[in-house]
Amino acid sequence: MTSPVRIPGEWKIPYNYTVGTFATAFFDGLREGRIIGCRCSTCDRVAVPPKSFCEYCFIPIETLEQVGRNGVVEAMTVVTAPFAGSPPVPYAVVYVRLEGATSAIANYVRGVDLGDGTAPPAAIAIEAPVHAVFAAEPEGRVTDFWFEPGHE
Ligand SMILES: [Zn+2]
User: Fold this and answer.
1) 110 lies in a domain?
2) What total of structural domains would you count in the chain?
């Protein structure tokens, strides 16, 4: 039996999709320098970014609310291997639970010396305080903000 014939190919399919009411509120908030989450009326959890349903209670969520810019690191990584579209290495990404939120949101880190990227910096260790810093002219994108060490 012969092996299957394989023909290399590539699809490039540009598209746009609607992100929905809650994600729209999140991105609109970023444009105004605010981080928006949602509160479940049953379990009181606050998810950031907001979701239209509670992933714990499986019920629709109707309440959006702003969370704080200060938070604590729940997870972090220092990336040392570049890939298409990545920032120059090394760079760090942290998962941060912001004040008023019960979930965490990931974003890039600035203001930390990462050295050669082989040693995790204490400034962004688990439970380290960090705060969100916004670009001077936010555009409604998740890259409008990043995290820096300490609270503001
Ligand atoms: Zn819930």
Assistant:
1) yes
2) 1
Q: Which domain holds residue 114?
A: 21-149
pTM of the model: 0.88
Residue 1 banded pLDDT, cuts 50, 70, 90:
confident
Q: What is the DSSP letter of 99?
A: T
**Mean per-residue pLDDT, 33-58:** 97
| 30, containing H or E segment | helix 21-31
Around ion ligand 1, which residues have CB less than 5 A away?
A: 40, 42-43, 54, 56-57
Q: Residue 110: which H helix or E strand, with range? A: none
Domain annotation covers residue 142: yes
Tokens 């990545």, residue located? 86
CA of 37 to the centre of ligand 1 (A): 13
* Å from CA of 93 to ligand 1 middle: 27
Residue 3: inside a domain, yes or no?
Answer: no
Residue 48 falls inside a structural domain = yes
φ, ψ for residue 129, nearest 5 deg: -75, 135
Distance 46 CA to ligand 1 centre (A): 9
pLDDT > 80? residue 13: yes
